[in-house]
């Protein structure tokens, strides 16, 4: 090997992770965090911890961590925590790690299956990654899904309750939620197709799971497309039956509840509407929502053989 006098070899860059911890997550415990930290420590990997409930402080500390070019920023929480971390990783070489401690864990379920902390640690420590798509709605990032009507209502009904264990429980929940949603007319445009609809449920999914249910099993994480599902209105859709079949993964979209695929979606009027976005409920930011899908913008820590 050729030697150069007066030149010191560059120090080897040691892998490092930044752990963003949401202590308010539904399935959070200190023991689970200690388990992750112990696993990282045993691999001769540095780590830092962001543990605060103040969003501005979290954002500041993630940005400061990115100056060290971490291998990954690990979201230790639910879908909202994953979304918060992902916003800082668009088109970055640092990857998003997911340690599922939330109630629904829709994003983790969609990418890796049923939440399993040992498997999650395996994905994180592999230091391998794959790229997934990212959606943008009026300037706000989402990775999993956006819902109007039925999904926000179901999410709020389950806020202080456990998830139903059986199909009949999901069916009853869906019937109650549908009865609480007032019908409203929307103009929907999906790429070059335009519709006038009055749905009780409208969802835009990049990934299959929303509110713990596999709404769009056909969704692919890196194909640059999203799935748009909505009912035709006029009381034709029976949501108790729909959600029961979705839970059993037996529903086929047809006339009553339809599915389309696209990359650019416009929806109006949305003033006063509540939106479900990656586990959080927010008020619609404008009277017209413009949604666009961007392909392979975020790296996710994932064993390549998976």
3D structure, described in words:
The chain is α+β, with helices and mostly antiparallel strands and 306 residues long. It contains eight helices and 18 strands. The strands form four sheets. The protein has a six-stranded antiparallel sheet with strand order 6-5-18-15-8-9.
In short:
This protein has 306 residues and is of the alpha+beta class. It is 26% helix and 32% strand.
Question: Tags for this entry?
Answer:
306 residues; alpha+beta; 6-stranded antiparallel sheet
How much strand content do the residues show? 25-35%
How far the N terminus sits from the C terminus, by CA atoms, comes to: 38 Å
Q: Helical residue percent? A: 25-40%
SSE pattern, N- to C-terminal = EHEHEHEHHEEEHHEEEEEEHEEEEE
Helices, strands, pairings?
Elements: E1 16-21, H1 30-41, E2 46-50, H2 55-66, E3 72-77, H3 79-86, E4 95-100, H4 106-112, H5 117-126, E5 129-137, E6 140-142, E7 145-149, H6 150-157, H7 167-179, E8 186-190, E9 193-197, E10 201-205, E11 209-210, E12 213-214, E13 226-231, H8 239-247, E14 257-262, E15 264-268, E16 274-277, E17 280-283, E18 289-301
Parallel strand pairs: 1-2, 1-3, 3-4
Antiparallel strand pairs: 5-6, 5-18, 7-10, 7-16, 8-9, 8-15, 10-13, 11-12, 13-14, 15-18, 16-17
């Amino acid at each position: 090997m050729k030697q150069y006098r007066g030149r010191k070899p560059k120090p080897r860059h040691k892998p490092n992770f930044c752990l963003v911890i949401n202590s308010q997550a539904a399935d959070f415990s200190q023991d689970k965090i200690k388990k992750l930290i112990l696993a990282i420590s045993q691999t001769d990997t540095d780590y830092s911890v962001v543990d605060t409930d103040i969003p501005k402080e979290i954002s500041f500390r993630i940005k400061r961590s990115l100056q060290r070019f971490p291998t990954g920023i690990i979201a230790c929480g639910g879908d909202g925590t994953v979304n918060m971390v992902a916003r800082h990783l668009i088109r970055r070489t640092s990857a998003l790690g997911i340690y599922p401690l939330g109630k629904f864990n829709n994003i983790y379920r969609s990418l890796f299956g049923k939440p399993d902390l040992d498997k999650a640690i395996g994905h994180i420590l592999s230091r391998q990654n794959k790229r997934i798509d990212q959606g943008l709605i009026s300037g706000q990032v989402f990775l999993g899904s956006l819902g109007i009507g039925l999904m926000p209502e179901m999410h709020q009904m389950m806020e202080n309750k456990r998830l139903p264990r059986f199909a009949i429980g999901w069916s009853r929940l869906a019937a109650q939620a549908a009865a609480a949603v007032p019908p409203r007319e929307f103009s929907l445009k999906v790429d070059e197709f335009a519709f006038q609809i009055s749905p009780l449920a409208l969802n835009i999914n990049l990934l299959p799971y929303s509110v713990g249910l596999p709404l769009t099993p056909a969704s692919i994480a890196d194909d640059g497309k999203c799935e748009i599902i909505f009912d035709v209105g006029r009381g034709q859709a029976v949501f108790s039956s729909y959600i029961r079949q979705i839970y059993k993964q037996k529903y086929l979209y047809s006339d009553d509840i339809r599915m389309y695929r696209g990359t650019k979606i416009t929806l109006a009027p949305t003033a006063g509407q509540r939106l479900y976005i990656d586990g959080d409920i927010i008020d619609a930011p404008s009277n017209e929502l413009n949604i666009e899908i961007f392909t392979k913008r975020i790296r996710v820590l994932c064993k390549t053989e998976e």
